[in-house]
Amino acid sequence: RQYDSERAKSKDKRAADRLEVLMTKRQELEENMDEIKNMLTYMFKSVFVHRYRDTLPEIRSICMQEIGTWMKKFHQNFLDDSYLKYIGWTLHDKVGDVRLKCLQSLEPLYASEELKGKLELFTSKFKDRIVSMTLDKEFDVAVEAVKLVISILKFHQEILSDKDCEHVYELVYSSHRAVAQAAGEFLNERLFLPDEEAVRDLRTKRGKKRLPNTPLIRDLVQFFIESELH
Protein backbone atom coordinates (compact mmCIF):
# COMPACT_ATOMS: atom_id res chain seq x y z
CA ARG A 1 0.00 0.00 0.00
CA GLN A 2 2.82 2.40 0.85
CA TYR A 3 4.54 1.49 -2.42
CA ASP A 4 1.41 2.19 -4.48
CA SER A 5 0.85 5.47 -2.63
CA GLU A 6 4.39 6.63 -3.25
CA ARG A 7 4.27 5.60 -6.88
CA ALA A 8 1.03 7.53 -7.42
CA LYS A 9 2.72 10.80 -6.52
CA SER A 10 3.96 13.11 -9.27
CA LYS A 11 7.61 12.68 -10.28
CA ASP A 12 8.77 15.83 -8.51
CA LYS A 13 7.19 14.74 -5.23
CA ARG A 14 8.39 11.15 -5.26
CA ALA A 15 11.18 10.11 -2.95
CA ALA A 16 13.26 7.85 -5.18
CA ASP A 17 15.13 6.22 -2.32
CA ARG A 18 11.92 5.55 -0.39
CA LEU A 19 10.26 4.14 -3.51
CA GLU A 20 13.16 1.77 -4.06
CA VAL A 21 13.06 0.58 -0.42
CA LEU A 22 9.33 -0.01 -0.62
CA MET A 23 9.71 -1.86 -3.91
CA THR A 24 12.31 -4.13 -2.33
CA LYS A 25 10.04 -4.83 0.66
CA ARG A 26 7.13 -5.55 -1.63
CA GLN A 27 9.17 -8.04 -3.63
CA GLU A 28 10.33 -9.71 -0.41
CA LEU A 29 6.72 -10.05 0.83
CA GLU A 30 5.58 -11.51 -2.49
CA GLU A 31 8.46 -13.99 -2.42
CA ASN A 32 7.61 -14.94 1.17
CA MET A 33 3.96 -15.47 0.25
CA ASP A 34 4.98 -17.66 -2.68
CA GLU A 35 7.26 -19.66 -0.39
CA ILE A 36 4.46 -20.14 2.18
CA LYS A 37 2.09 -21.20 -0.59
CA ASN A 38 4.60 -23.73 -1.91
CA MET A 39 5.17 -25.11 1.60
CA LEU A 40 1.43 -25.52 2.20
CA THR A 41 0.94 -27.17 -1.18
CA TYR A 42 3.81 -29.55 -0.45
CA MET A 43 2.37 -30.39 2.99
CA PHE A 44 -1.03 -30.98 1.45
CA LYS A 45 0.24 -33.35 -1.23
CA SER A 46 2.76 -35.19 0.93
CA VAL A 47 0.77 -35.40 4.18
CA PHE A 48 -2.92 -34.56 3.89
CA VAL A 49 -3.69 -36.57 0.75
CA HIS A 50 -2.39 -39.71 2.49
CA ARG A 51 -3.67 -39.06 6.00
CA TYR A 52 -7.25 -37.92 5.40
CA ARG A 53 -8.06 -41.63 4.89
CA ASP A 54 -5.92 -42.79 7.82
CA THR A 55 -7.05 -45.89 9.71
CA LEU A 56 -7.23 -43.81 12.91
CA PRO A 57 -10.40 -41.68 13.01
CA GLU A 58 -8.65 -39.13 15.24
CA ILE A 59 -6.20 -38.34 12.44
CA ARG A 60 -9.00 -38.14 9.87
CA SER A 61 -10.80 -35.68 12.16
CA ILE A 62 -7.69 -33.50 12.48
CA CYS A 63 -7.31 -33.47 8.70
CA MET A 64 -10.87 -32.23 8.19
CA GLN A 65 -10.51 -29.62 10.90
CA GLU A 66 -7.25 -28.28 9.50
CA ILE A 67 -8.31 -28.13 5.87
CA GLY A 68 -11.28 -26.05 7.00
CA THR A 69 -8.88 -23.65 8.71
CA TRP A 70 -6.72 -23.41 5.60
CA MET A 71 -9.75 -22.71 3.43
CA LYS A 72 -10.85 -19.87 5.68
CA LYS A 73 -7.42 -18.28 6.23
CA PHE A 74 -5.94 -18.94 2.77
CA HIS A 75 -9.09 -19.05 0.68
CA GLN A 76 -7.30 -17.62 -2.37
CA ASN A 77 -5.27 -20.83 -2.58
CA PHE A 78 -7.40 -23.56 -1.02
CA LEU A 79 -11.07 -22.66 -1.38
CA ASP A 80 -11.81 -24.36 -4.67
CA ASP A 81 -13.30 -27.66 -5.73
CA SER A 82 -9.96 -29.45 -6.07
CA TYR A 83 -9.66 -29.17 -2.25
CA LEU A 84 -13.34 -29.02 -1.23
CA LYS A 85 -13.91 -32.48 -2.71
CA TYR A 86 -11.93 -34.04 0.14
CA ILE A 87 -14.42 -32.69 2.65
CA GLY A 88 -17.30 -33.80 0.42
CA TRP A 89 -15.99 -37.35 0.17
CA THR A 90 -15.36 -37.55 3.92
CA LEU A 91 -18.98 -36.61 4.71
CA HIS A 92 -19.55 -40.36 4.24
CA ASP A 93 -17.01 -41.38 6.90
CA LYS A 94 -18.13 -44.22 9.19
CA VAL A 95 -17.10 -42.37 12.37
CA GLY A 96 -19.40 -39.65 13.68
CA ASP A 97 -16.69 -37.29 14.92
CA VAL A 98 -15.06 -37.22 11.48
CA ARG A 99 -18.39 -36.36 9.84
CA LEU A 100 -18.90 -33.69 12.49
CA LYS A 101 -15.54 -32.06 11.75
CA CYS A 102 -16.45 -31.93 8.06
CA LEU A 103 -19.63 -30.01 8.80
CA GLN A 104 -17.91 -27.71 11.28
CA SER A 105 -15.25 -26.87 8.68
CA LEU A 106 -17.92 -25.98 6.11
CA GLU A 107 -20.12 -23.81 8.31
CA PRO A 108 -17.88 -20.70 8.59
CA LEU A 109 -17.30 -20.84 4.83
CA TYR A 110 -21.03 -20.72 4.11
CA ALA A 111 -21.51 -17.97 6.70
CA SER A 112 -19.00 -15.67 4.99
CA GLU A 113 -20.30 -13.10 2.50
CA GLU A 114 -16.86 -13.07 0.90
CA LEU A 115 -16.53 -16.83 0.46
CA LYS A 116 -20.06 -18.10 -0.19
CA GLY A 117 -19.81 -17.54 -3.95
CA LYS A 118 -17.02 -20.11 -4.24
CA LEU A 119 -19.21 -22.89 -2.82
CA GLU A 120 -21.87 -23.15 -5.52
CA LEU A 121 -20.42 -26.15 -7.36
CA PHE A 122 -19.61 -27.96 -4.11
CA THR A 123 -23.14 -27.32 -2.85
CA SER A 124 -24.74 -28.68 -6.01
CA LYS A 125 -22.63 -31.85 -5.75
CA PHE A 126 -22.95 -32.57 -2.03
CA LYS A 127 -26.21 -30.88 -1.02
CA ASP A 128 -28.16 -34.16 -0.97
CA ARG A 129 -25.62 -35.74 1.36
CA ILE A 130 -25.68 -32.73 3.72
CA VAL A 131 -29.49 -32.78 3.87
CA SER A 132 -29.53 -36.52 4.54
CA MET A 133 -27.10 -36.00 7.44
CA THR A 134 -29.85 -34.16 9.34
CA LEU A 135 -31.03 -37.71 10.13
CA ASP A 136 -27.58 -38.85 11.25
CA LYS A 137 -27.57 -41.46 14.02
CA GLU A 138 -25.17 -39.22 15.96
CA PHE A 139 -27.27 -36.37 17.32
CA ASP A 140 -24.46 -33.82 17.39
CA VAL A 141 -23.82 -34.53 13.69
CA ALA A 142 -27.54 -34.15 12.91
CA VAL A 143 -27.66 -30.79 14.73
CA GLU A 144 -24.61 -29.50 12.87
CA ALA A 145 -26.10 -30.69 9.56
CA VAL A 146 -29.30 -28.73 10.21
CA LYS A 147 -27.23 -25.62 11.02
CA LEU A 148 -25.36 -26.04 7.76
CA VAL A 149 -28.61 -26.42 5.82
CA ILE A 150 -29.75 -23.13 7.41
CA SER A 151 -26.60 -21.47 6.06
CA ILE A 152 -27.26 -22.94 2.62
CA LEU A 153 -30.83 -21.62 2.82
CA LYS A 154 -29.57 -18.12 3.58
CA PHE A 155 -26.97 -17.90 0.84
CA HIS A 156 -27.98 -20.48 -1.79
CA GLN A 157 -31.73 -20.73 -1.28
CA GLU A 158 -32.42 -21.72 -4.88
CA ILE A 159 -30.44 -24.95 -4.45
CA LEU A 160 -32.77 -26.36 -1.78
CA SER A 161 -35.88 -28.03 -3.18
CA ASP A 162 -39.25 -28.11 -1.39
CA LYS A 163 -38.58 -31.78 -0.66
CA ASP A 164 -35.27 -30.90 0.99
CA CYS A 165 -36.99 -28.33 3.19
CA GLU A 166 -39.83 -30.68 4.14
CA HIS A 167 -37.19 -33.21 5.12
CA VAL A 168 -35.91 -30.76 7.74
CA TYR A 169 -39.34 -29.48 8.81
CA GLU A 170 -40.24 -32.93 10.12
CA LEU A 171 -37.38 -32.81 12.59
CA VAL A 172 -39.18 -30.25 14.76
CA TYR A 173 -40.96 -33.29 16.23
CA SER A 174 -37.69 -35.07 17.01
CA SER A 175 -37.45 -36.55 20.51
CA HIS A 176 -33.93 -35.09 20.75
CA ARG A 177 -34.28 -31.49 21.94
CA ALA A 178 -31.20 -30.06 20.19
CA VAL A 179 -32.23 -31.54 16.84
CA ALA A 180 -35.80 -30.25 17.21
CA GLN A 181 -34.54 -26.81 18.22
CA ALA A 182 -32.20 -26.59 15.22
CA ALA A 183 -35.05 -27.68 12.92
CA GLY A 184 -37.22 -25.00 14.51
CA GLU A 185 -34.63 -22.38 13.57
CA PHE A 186 -34.71 -23.66 10.00
CA LEU A 187 -38.51 -23.56 9.96
CA ASN A 188 -38.47 -20.00 11.25
CA GLU A 189 -35.93 -18.92 8.64
CA ARG A 190 -37.79 -20.60 5.78
CA LEU A 191 -41.44 -19.92 6.60
CA PHE A 192 -41.97 -17.57 9.49
CA LEU A 193 -39.80 -14.52 8.96
CA PRO A 194 -42.24 -11.60 8.99
CA ASP A 195 -42.90 -9.61 5.85
CA GLU A 196 -43.03 -6.09 7.29
CA GLU A 197 -44.62 -4.62 4.20
CA ALA A 198 -47.38 -7.25 4.15
CA VAL A 199 -48.36 -6.83 7.82
CA ARG A 200 -48.02 -3.06 8.08
CA ASP A 201 -51.69 -2.34 7.26
CA LEU A 202 -53.16 -5.72 8.18
CA ARG A 203 -56.59 -5.30 9.78
CA THR A 204 -59.49 -7.41 11.03
CA LYS A 205 -62.91 -7.46 9.35
CA ARG A 206 -63.97 -4.72 11.74
CA GLY A 207 -61.08 -2.55 10.68
CA LYS A 208 -59.00 -3.03 13.82
CA LYS A 209 -55.26 -3.17 13.22
CA ARG A 210 -53.78 -6.63 13.76
CA LEU A 211 -50.61 -7.29 15.73
CA PRO A 212 -47.51 -7.95 13.56
CA ASN A 213 -47.21 -11.52 14.87
CA THR A 214 -50.76 -12.51 13.93
CA PRO A 215 -49.88 -13.97 10.48
CA LEU A 216 -46.97 -15.88 12.02
CA ILE A 217 -49.17 -17.50 14.66
CA ARG A 218 -51.69 -18.40 11.98
CA ASP A 219 -48.96 -19.97 9.81
CA LEU A 220 -47.60 -21.89 12.81
CA VAL A 221 -51.04 -23.32 13.63
CA GLN A 222 -51.54 -24.20 9.97
CA PHE A 223 -48.19 -25.99 9.90
CA PHE A 224 -49.14 -27.99 12.98
CA ILE A 225 -52.53 -28.95 11.52
CA GLU A 226 -51.09 -30.02 8.16
CA SER A 227 -48.28 -32.04 9.70
CA GLU A 228 -49.04 -35.74 10.00
CA LEU A 229 -46.27 -36.45 12.51
CA HIS A 230 -47.45 -34.78 15.73
What is the helix content? 55-70%
Report strand %: under 5%
Protein structure class: mainly alpha
Mean pLDDT: 83
Number of helices: 12
Tell me the span between the first and last alpha carbons.
61 Å
Q: How are helices and strands ordered from N to C?
A: HHHHHHHHHHHH
Main pleated-sheet profile: none
Radius of gyration: 25 Å
Silhouette: flat
**Poorly predicted tracts of residues:** none
Explain what you see.
This protein has helices spanning 2-8, 16-51, 57-73, 75-78, 81-90, 96-110, 120-132, 139-155, 162-169, 177-192, 196-199, 214-226. With 230 residues, the protein is mostly helical. Helix 8 (139-155) packs parallel to helix 10 (177-192). The longest helix has 36 residues, at 16-51. The protein starts with a helix and ends with a helix. The model has no long low-confidence stretch (mean pLDDT 83).
List the helices and strands and how they pair.
Layout: H1 2-8, H2 16-51, H3 57-73, H4 75-78, H5 81-90, H6 96-110, H7 120-132, H8 139-155, H9 162-169, H10 177-192, H11 196-199, H12 214-226
Helix pairs in contact: 1-2, 3-6, 5-7, 6-8, 7-8, 8-10
Give me a quick take on this structure:
This protein has 230 residues and is mainly alpha-helical.
